[in-house]
Amino acid sequence: MYSEMIKFLESEILSGKKWAVFKGFELPREYFSLQCVESALEASELCDALIYSTTESGEVVENGSYFFYSIDNLIKEFQVAQGLVLPMLTLPEQVEAMARENGVVAFSEHLHPFTATELAHGCIVPVMKPITFTPVERMEQFHIVCHAHEYKGLIYEVGHSHGILQTFSGFGTAEETFGELARRLPARTSRISYDLILVGQFRDQTLRLNSEGYPEYNTGLPLKTAFYEEGSLKINLIMDPFKQMTINQRFFAGYNSDKEQLVYFDDRLQEIVPGASVQSFIESNFRSNLGILLLSATVPKLKIDGEVTSEMKTVQHEAVASFKRILKIKGAFPVGSRDRKGRRRR
Question: How does pLDDT run across 249-274, given as a tens digit for each residue?
Answer without folding.
Answer: 888 999 999 999 999 998 899 999 88
